[in-house]
Amino acid sequence: MAVLVRDGLLPIEVGIVHRLFGRARDADGRPIYEVVTFALEPGEIRTDTDFTMNVAHGPEVLAEADTVIVPAAEEDYEERPHDPLAPELAAAIARVRPQTRVASICTGAFVLAAAGLLDGCRVTTHWKSAGYFRAMYPHIDLDPDVLYTDNGRVLTAAGVASGIDLSLHMIRTDHGAAVANEVARNTVVPPHRDGGQAQYIRHPVPAPERSATARARAWALDNLHLQPSLREMAEQESMSVRTFTRRFREEVGQSPGKWITQQRLDRARQLLEESDLSVDRIAAEAGFGTAASLRQHMHVELGVSPSAYRRTFRGTASAP
Q1: Once rounded to an integer, what is the mean pLDDT over residues 129-157?
Q2: Strands 36-39, 122-123: parallel, antiparallel or unpaired by DSSP?
Q3: CA–CA gap between residue 192 and residue 160 (Å, rounded)
Q4: Average pLDDT, the chain
Q5: What is the mean pLDDT of residues 275-286?
Q6: Catalytic position from the list 9, 72, 106, 183
Q7: Which of 9, 29, 129, 154 is deepest in the core (most CB within 10 A)?
Q8: Looking at residue 201, what is its pLDDT?
Q9: What is the DSSP string of 4-66?
Q10: Between 13 and 207, whose confidence is greater?
Q11: Any catalytic annotation for residue 106?
Q12: Residue 149: beta bridge partners?
């Protein structure tokens, strides 16, 4: 895993990557990732703080990188950043192999966009830079109201804290919930915030007694196996379905239906990874009702069947 640092870098974003991916361990306690920091020219790199960073590696590390992460730097906050892309930076990005996964944190998305790596993708960046991004790249599908996006090979995170969410998401995708949860516990951060969750910007925080949906969400998570309906969730907050749906979107950044489907998928993935329950039983526990429904949802969202997912993360065939 190669992490690009540039003049005026934000140290916290580089630290997030090293801390989280560096803490991931396999069942035998061995590190899963090798994280290497590189600069366009090795040496002392200025940060946006009162200290510098000494970087030993240059772009040559890209020849072997399976993942490249581009955090933010001060130059991304200019009026039209990377227009055009500096020759040295363009040459470095050109070294990225076609099969290599690439990700940005915060305004690092401007670098990937300028290099043409975000074309055809749904992406995000910091909400304060959304206007500049849209003006420069109107052909790119920008969603400034989510924490992160995952397009398979290309991923983007909205800001510093969502860099944590994206890193844990990538670890979870690569090696399963158990590994990601252990990394989260060791670093004392929440193990999972869905990428579609709102960035908590622009809208004032609603008064809890008027619009909080936390009680309904907690109830739904405790009762996934009962297939809770939208009406039942609204009743937990003594709201009409229409009011509950609107306020749910304000707080979570997606519809109740989409959110609960994601929670069911997360529960199913956890059970596939950590239990020996049959696919039929897991489908029931996660609220999908039937194995056929679970298979359909996993195929749409993940592109794999439950049994294939279990083999990937446990190395065993699914239970009968």
Answers
A1: 93
A2: unpaired
A3: 15
A4: 89
A5: 94
A6: 106
A7: 9
A8: 40
A9: EE-TTB-HHHHHHHHHHHHH-B-TTS-BS---EEEESSSEEEEBSSS-EEEE-B-GGGGGT-S
A10: 13
A11: yes
A12: 156
